[in-house]
YkgJ family cysteine cluster protein (Geomobilimonas luticola), 100 residues
Amino acid sequence: MLWRERSKTKLHGALLDRPADDPDRCKGCDGACCRSFPAVELTWDEYERLLALGATRLHFSLTGHHKLIIENGCEFLSQGRCAIYGDRPDICRRFICSEE
């Protein structure tokens, strides 16, 4: 069997102080950030919004932050794109990545 060598592009992520909504910046990454973390922290309003959108991997906490579990890929990632882009949590809006 022949193996094709795949060159992986290394990405560098950063969390901005404010949202950086730009759908074009996410076109080429295939949802790398949506698969790279175990969970994202949510506010109560975000928790309720995602619950209304059908999220099944939510973690409710009485003592800390509520979370959306995204380990092994966010449930809202569809064909490498965010299916809830306009409703995504603030932390997702503030995360950017670029090639190293």
